[in-house]
Amino acid sequence: MTANDSRPTRVGSNTQLVGAGHNPFDFHGFVNPPTVRASTVLFPDAGTMEAHGQKYTYGTRGTPTTDALCTAINELEGAAGTILLPSGLAAVTVTFLAYLAAGDHALIVDSVYGNVRRFCDTVLTRFGIEVEYYDPSLGAEIETLFKPNTRLVHLEAPGSNTFEMQDIPAIAAVAHRHDAVVTMDNTWATPLYFRPLDFGVDVSIQASTKYPAGHADILMGTASANARRWRRLKHVHGELGICGAPDDAYQVLRGLRTMGVRLERHQKSALAIAEWLEARDDVARILYPALPSFPDHDIWKRDFKGASGVLSFVLAVAPGRDFKVRAQGFLNGLSLFGLGYSWGGFQSLALHVDLDDRRVLRAPNEGPVIRLHIGLEDIDDLKADLARGFDAAG
């Protein structure tokens, strides 16, 4: 990169990640942008202060550090604007609050992240918003669920824990005919493997906690809107005052530079583990869209450029055996896989999935669902560790 930022306009994804959001010559040639921590911002005179006539006015409205991350995410998402939030959950909830009001009806996919469901069932209903959950397999048929007051449709693809795909263009087309906002949690794929706004989604949401940060040490979320929906999202974000911190933004920017090569490794290892699990008699089913045997594989192959490192499998359990006992036996037999929430970091993780909150979908009945995040360890070591888990469960 030169002082006049003469980068080519069309580059590969890893090249884009290296330079996105920051020109070193805007900051005296330093490769990384400085971390600007701020609450108060001074104005040169009273007139400028009254008119808010300068780029930065107060810390909650952005700093050069948070702007650098927003600019990078805009570039990756193809968005008109991005807001930063202190967690992925906050990115979803603030987006809902931006577009929903008392008396509105919202359609939420039944495979949604569990904490989002709890927000919908408590906060949104308390605000007088009607929430209805729909089957992720609905494409254009979702139109039968629309009401005159339907204002928002929320997607998550693949779905949390069970990885159902959705026909995103078909759903978006229906929603837009009814003038409803389409939001999507795209944390699993990141904009490297799927760009929601290119497929009709209005607001693309990521938990930057996961792959963008990549090191299990940061909480942050982003919501990126197209030109039509950006102004409303920006204003509500400012009115709520829920903002991402500059230090966290710096860490996410640093992680973003290596996200492409990390995702390549996560994908390669996850596919190898999925194929290995599929061949085992003690596994009833693999839930991973990149596998040709997965029911929604064709939709994934049509729309997505890649797969990340998160998958689930159904542990085969003989009739009469307790699902929880078998799942805990498997987990307790692991040593390389950590037992913990979240994913996207360098270490592999495992947990027993609770699907009791589903309203429309049915949980697999062959056994407990175990979710795995495949990290950056060597594949043979991970296979050996999983084999120890199966032995402990058996």
Describe the structure.
The chain is an alpha/beta fold and 394 residues long. The chain has 2 domains: 13-256, Aspartate Aminotransferase, domain 2 (3-Layer(aba) Sandwich), CATH 3.40.640.10; 259-393, Aspartate Aminotransferase, domain 1 (Alpha-Beta Complex), CATH 3.90.1150. It is 36% helix and 15% strand. It has helices spanning 13-19, 46-51, 64-77, 88-99, 114-126, 168-177, 190-193, 227-240, 246-256, 259-278, 297-303, 323-332, 379-393; strands at residues 81-85, 105-109, 130-134, 150-156, 181-185, 203-207, 221-225, 283-287, 310-315, 338-339, 349-352, 369-373. The model has no long low-confidence stretch (mean pLDDT 94). Its EC number is 4.4.1.8. It catalyses: L,L-cystathionine + H2O = L-homocysteine + pyruvate + NH4(+). The modification N6-(pyridoxal phosphate)lysine is found at residue 210.
Question: Mean pLDDT, as a whole number?
Answer: 94
**Quick one: biggest sheet?**
7 strands, mixed
Q: What radius of gyration results from the CA coordinates?
A: 22 Å
Helix content: 25-40%
State the CATH class of the largest domain.
Alpha Beta
Q: Please state roughly what percent of the residues sit in beta strands, choosing from under 5%, 5-15%, 15-25%, 25-35%, 35-45% or over 45%.
A: 5-15%
Q: What class, by secondary structure content?
A: alpha/beta
CATH topology of the largest domain, by name, is Aspartate Aminotransferase, domain 2
Number of individual domains: 2
**Gap from first CA to last CA:** 57 Å
Shape annotation: globular
Extended strand count: 12
Enzyme class: lyase
Keywords: Lyase, Pyridoxal phosphate
Cofactor: pyridoxal 5'-phosphate
Pfam families: Cys_Met_Meta_PP
